[in-house]
Amino acid sequence: AARSSGEKYKAYVPSMGQMFLRRFQLVTQFRQALESDQVSVHYQPKVALPSRAVLGVEALVRWVHPEFGRLDPDEFVPAVEAAGLVDALTDFVLDKALVKIRAWLDRGLRIGVAVNLSVRSLANQDFPDQVAAALERHGVPPELLTLELTESGVMADPARALPVLRGLHTLGVVLAVDDFGTGYSSLAYLRQLPVDEVKIDKSFVFGMGSDLGDLAVVRSIVELGHSLGLVVVAEGVEEDAARDQLAAMGCDVAQGYLISRPLSEERLEAWLQARTTK
Ligand code: C2E
Ligand code: CA
Ligand code: CA
Ligand code: CA
């Protein structure tokens, strides 16, 4: 064991060094990237089940880096978060989302936008006031804005997160628990959170066609969510069979590649146009 770990050591050092360097570069370049056109927001549609009416979209950040190309948010968002820079990202996405909602309203369309929150926002006691001011500034009714938070984000520091959630809830924005089912105290805590919507993690939705365990998890989240009066959303809907099964269970909303991939602003407009003129 000692001999092979010595060999591994040699092989791993440079790549870890490179990863560290890349992460360091990403973090130091992030603010500037936000101000240039490297960072943008894409939108993934959410549709009602079974009608398939478009209810809203989820805002998902995209970064096309001049050296590294398209970056996966699962790589840079955690890095930006760890470096304490995520508030700038949240402000950026929230602002784009509100501009978008307002522009749609001006064209007679009521389409909501969901924005992903970081743990940091939930620890910021001024966050509800900041959101209220942003809604006011853009002339957007609160019910068209959804804020998605993860259970682990809430559980990181519930004593600080709860008053922030209550403040947001009082404003009338929609609160959604993202990646539901992946945390481990899920069921007990969901009851105590002032939330409106639960999003079933895509890992269970992917597996539900072939794995009875995943199917059981999905079914019980739908039932639990409904018994708590929540809207239940399934993400990661890639196949007709999954959509039909979800609709049969009474799941309220579907999001996934079957409906659409996340789209640039321009492509989203074309997608919406095609849907509404059909
Ligand atoms: P998430 O909030 O769970 O977002 C859903 C992710 O699932 C997105 O990945 C979306 O593209 C992907 N997805 C949706 N439908 C399907 C499907 O049918 N199949 C598959 N395979 N994937 C699907 P994306 O855009 O790469 O984002 C990854 C994560 O990065 C997000 O997970 C979220 O945690 C984070 N993120 C993205 N944008 C933001 C942001 O603006 N702020 C913060 N704080 N985090 C963000
Ligand atoms: Ca999300
Ligand atoms: Ca999710
Ligand atoms: Ca996720």
Could you say which structural class the secondary elements and strand pairing correspond to? alpha/beta
Largest sheet: 8 strands, mixed, barrel
Which small-molecule ligands are present, each listed once?
ligand C2E, calcium ion
Alpha carbon gap, first and last residue: 64 Å
Write a concise synopsis of the structure shown:
The protein has 278 residues and is of the alpha/beta class. The protein has 12 helices and 9 strands.
List the helices and strands and how they pair.
Elements: H1 2-35, E1 39-48, E2 54-65, E3 69-71, H2 73-82, H3 86-106, E4 112-116, H4 119-123, H5 127-138, E5 145-150, H6 151-155, H7 158-171, E6 174-180, H8 186-190, E7 197-200, H9 202-207, H10 212-227, E8 231-234, H11 240-249, E9 253-254, H12 265-277
Parallel strand pairs: 2-4, 4-5, 5-6, 6-7, 7-8, 8-9
Antiparallel strand pairs: 1-2, 1-9, 2-3
The protein binds ligand C2E and calcium ion (3 copies).
GO molecular function: cyclic-guanylate-specific phosphodiesterase activity
Keywords: Membrane, Transmembrane, Transmembrane helix
Organism: Actinophytocola xinjiangensis
What does this structure look like?
By secondary structure, the protein is α/β, with parallel strands linked by helices. The protein has helices at residues 2-35, 73-82, 86-106, 119-123, 127-138, 151-155, 158-171, 186-190, 202-207, 212-227, 240-249, 265-277, and strands spanning 39-48, 54-65, 69-71, 112-116, 145-150, 174-180, 197-200, 231-234, 253-254. The protein has an 8-stranded mixed β-barrel with strand order 1-2-4-5-6-7-8-9, surrounded by 6 helices. A hairpin with a 3-residue loop joins strand 2 (54-65) and strand 3 (69-71). The chain is globular and about 50 Å long. The relative contact order is 0.11. The model has no long low-confidence stretch (mean pLDDT 91). The structure holds ligand C2E and calcium ion (3 copies). Ligand C2E binds next to strand 2, helix 2, helix 3 and strand 6.
